[in-house]
């Protein structure tokens, strides 16, 4: 009840053109610098305060047209890494490098099973070979697309505070039959479903997901173990101190970096969205086919 | 050797394969019943195990996001410190942990409850900014969202510990109570109605004064400047237990105590007082009536309240008779000290 109400109430809030944040901040600062800094009492004073700021902003907007051709839309903004990820076909090695995916952990902590994915060592740190990462990321994206195209359920797991908005956004992007876990994965979610979700839910609903994507596998060993027990395929970001065999489709990359997680989760979520669209198309085709069959069946006895 | 093994295997039909290998031929007679796919869980937070709670948190975070962007568009965020001071503080009364648990149908721990409260307080901050700046649409919409989480008896909760406002009945009478020592007085005060000049007065008010006599023929009298018409002076009637003040309190000190609030407020002649007093002695009763009258005047004429407060007439004197103690003749009086 509350969810839909909140969305209805605030969906219609003014969403006018966004302004560049740093210039806006300086505009606000300038507009309030010279003022006497008296507390605002009447409605008029508040309105004047807003109008003054708006004046400065409009001045800046006016002269912006005469300056550089860079706009908010065609320049990189920090929020683009979360809100505008590249498609799986558009991921490049330089994008991975820019997000810092090639930084592994200390050389002494390197897992010997990670050797195939390590490029080398620099300054005591294992450098991850992105020539392996990129095709493995694309493979993982294909898996996600395939699972979604067959109507499977996907779970994004990222249990750090900085990963929380990432998994939420990724789940929102895929849209249907997708879930996210931003806080602790409770042990027994899959292996103790009756106690966790109740007998009715465990029987009537599909509790065991069809794919689990882990953005930080090390603190989520319980989740990995449960997925193995319940035969759930897993995709995970594997750092150099982790054995890549714990997940089914490892993506060797830096698991501590927020930008890397945003990039990888974004790519996988776009693949998931494509898969959901394919599933929708397939269902529509099937529906048309069954309708035609029914019509033919109805017509056949008439003819006879 | 192999032939023997095969014969043994053939004999023992109930052999289980370690790899669960099923020979293809045995599958020919199996009928595959297409199962209807099971329903998938609704909430995207299903696998957290606390779907209801996290759904709520996500909804509130979304509301915060939208409100923040709206306020930024309206140039109301971020606010400099001197503007933030002009926003009045918020009085929010959120549901208790039990109340929220009931509402969400999900068990809430203290940390989860505090997290929800943090989000609600932040949203309330934004609502107050919008309200003070006059953005009523946004403020009302955010208030609608917050209303779900507010306690039902919010006003009662906020008014707890505060004095109840004095109510007037249909005739404009106030009813107040005053206490002093062991006495309690119930005081009704009603404004004195001034008589209209046309209607002849049949009340016990004073007769209008005669016009002042002309003492000396001055310039003003020569100019024909007549004195002003006499002002109507009303008087306060005080009845205590249906007895007039002068009869009830023979001592002038007690009478003075009763009338003092009216004198300090400058409202002598403005209100008629009727009091019922019980308990204690003269001092206690007069003090109780005084407090009742002061409260009544503060209710009728709120401007007079600071005057009465400064004169300490609105304070219930807490001094009560001290009890007698064992080993002493009275509360403090000790028995004569004897050396042996």
TrEMBL record, chain A:
Ribosomal protein as UniProt keyword: yes
InterPro entries: Ribosomal_uS2 (IPR001865), Ribosomal_uS2_bac/mit/plastid (IPR005706), Ribosomal_uS2_CS (IPR018130), Ribosomal_uS2_flav_dom_sf (IPR023591)
Superkingdom assignment: Eukaryota
One family name in Pfam for this protein: Ribosomal_S2
GO molecular function annotation: structural constituent of ribosome
Keyword annotations of the record: Ribonucleoprotein, Ribosomal protein
Coiled coil: none
Name of this protein: Ribosomal protein S2
Keyword Ribosomal protein: yes
CC terms in the record's Gene Ontology section: mitochondrial small ribosomal subunit
Family designation: Belongs to the universal ribosomal protein uS2 family.
GO biological process, one term: translation
Species name: Fibroporia radiculosa
HAMAP family cross-referenced by the UniProt entry: Ribosomal_uS2_B (MF_00291_B)
Automatic annotation (TrEMBL), chain B:
GO MF: RNA binding; structural constituent of ribosome
InterPro entries named in the record: Ribosomal_Su5_D2-typ_SF, Ribosomal_uS9, Ribosomal_uS9_CS, Ribsml_uS5_D2-typ_fold_subgr
GO-annotated biological processes: translation
GO cellular-component term (any): mitochondrial small ribosomal subunit
Keywords noted in UniProt: Ribonucleoprotein, Ribosomal protein
Superkingdom of origin organism: Eukaryota
Family: Belongs to the universal ribosomal protein uS9 family.
Name by which UniProt lists this protein: Ribosomal protein S5 domain 2-like protein
Species name: Fibroporia radiculosa
Classification lineage: Eukaryota, Fungi, Dikarya, Basidiomycota, Agaricomycotina
């Amino acid at each position: 009840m509350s969810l839909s109400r909140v969305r209805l109430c605030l969906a219609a809030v003014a969403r006018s053109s966004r302004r560049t944040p740093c210039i806006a901040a300086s505009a606000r600062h300038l507009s309030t610098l010279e003022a006497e800094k008296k507390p605002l009492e009447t409605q008029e004073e508040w309105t004047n305060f807003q109008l003054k700021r708006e004046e400065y902003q409009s001045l800046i907007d006016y002269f912006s047209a005469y300056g550089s051709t860079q706009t908010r839309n065609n320049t990189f903004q920090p929020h683009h890494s979360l809100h505008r990820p590249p498609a799986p076909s558009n991921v490049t090695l330089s994008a991975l490098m820019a997000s810092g995916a090639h930084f592994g952990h200390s050389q002494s902590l390197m897992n010997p099973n990670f050797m195939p994915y390590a490029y080398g060592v620099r300054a005591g740190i294992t450098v991850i070979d992105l020539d392996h990462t990129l095709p493995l990321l694309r493979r993982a994206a294909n898996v996600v697309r395939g699972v979604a195209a067959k109507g499977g359920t996907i779970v994004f797991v990222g249990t750090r505070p900085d990963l929380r908005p990432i998994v939420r956004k990724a789940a929102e992007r895929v849209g249907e039959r997708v879930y996210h876990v931003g806080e602790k994965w409770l042990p027994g979610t899959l292996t103790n479903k009756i106690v966790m979700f109740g007998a009715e839910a465990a029987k009537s609903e599909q509790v065991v997901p069809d794919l689990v994507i882990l953005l930080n596998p090390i603190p989520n060993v319980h989740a990995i173990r449960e997925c193995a027990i319940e035969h759930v395929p897993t995709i995970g970001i594997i750092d150099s101190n982790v054995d890549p065999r714990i997940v089914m489709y490892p993506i060797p990359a830096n698991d501590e970096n927020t930008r890397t997680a945003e990039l990888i989760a974004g790519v996988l979520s776009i693949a998931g969205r494509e898969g959901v669209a394919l599933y929708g198309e397939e269902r529509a085709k099937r529906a048309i086919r069954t309708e035609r069959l029914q019509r033919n069946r109805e017509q056949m006895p008439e003819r006879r | 050797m192999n032939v023997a093994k095969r014969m043994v295997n053939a004999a023992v039909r109930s052999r289980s394969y370690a790899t669960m290998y099923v020979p293809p031929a045995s599958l020919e007679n199996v009928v595959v019943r297409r199962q209807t796919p099971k329903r998938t869980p609704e909430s995207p937070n299903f696998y957290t195990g606390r779907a209801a709670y996290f759904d709520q948190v996500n909804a509130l975070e979304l509301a915060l996001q939208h409100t923040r962007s709206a306020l930024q568009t309206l140039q109301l965020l971020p606010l400099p410190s001197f503007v933030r001071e002009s926003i009045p503080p918020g009085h929010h009364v959120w549901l208790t942990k039990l109340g929220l648990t009931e509402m969400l149908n999900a068990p809430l721990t203290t940390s989860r409850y505090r997290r929800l409260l943090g989000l609600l307080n932040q949203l309330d901050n934004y609502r107050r900014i919008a309200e003070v700046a006059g953005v009523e649409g946004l403020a009302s919409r955010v208030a609608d969202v917050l209303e779900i989480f507010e306690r039902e008896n919010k006003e009662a909760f906020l008014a707890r510990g505060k004095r109840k406002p004095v109510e007037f009945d249909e005739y404009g009478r106030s009813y107040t109570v005053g206490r002093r020592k062991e006495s309690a007085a119930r005081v009704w005060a009603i404004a004195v109605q001034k008589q209209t000049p046309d209607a002849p007065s049949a009340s016990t008010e004073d007769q209008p004064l005669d016009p002042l006599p002309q003492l000396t023929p001055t310039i003003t009298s020569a100019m024909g400047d007549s004195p002003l018409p006499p002002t109507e002076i009303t008087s306060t009637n005080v009845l205590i237990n249906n007895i007039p003040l002068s009869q009830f309190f023979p001592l002038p000190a007690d009478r003075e105590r009763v009338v003092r609030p009216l004198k300090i407020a400058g409202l002598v002649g403005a209100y008629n007082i009727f009091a019922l007093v019980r308990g204690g002695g003269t001092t206690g009763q007069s003090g109780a009536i005084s407090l009742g009258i002061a409260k009544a005047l503060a209710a009728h004429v709120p401007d007079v309240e600071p005057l009465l407060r400064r004169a300490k007439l609105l304070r219930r004197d807490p001094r009560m008779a001290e009890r007698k103690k064992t080993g002493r003749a009275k509360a403090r009086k000790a028995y004569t000290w004897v050396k042996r």
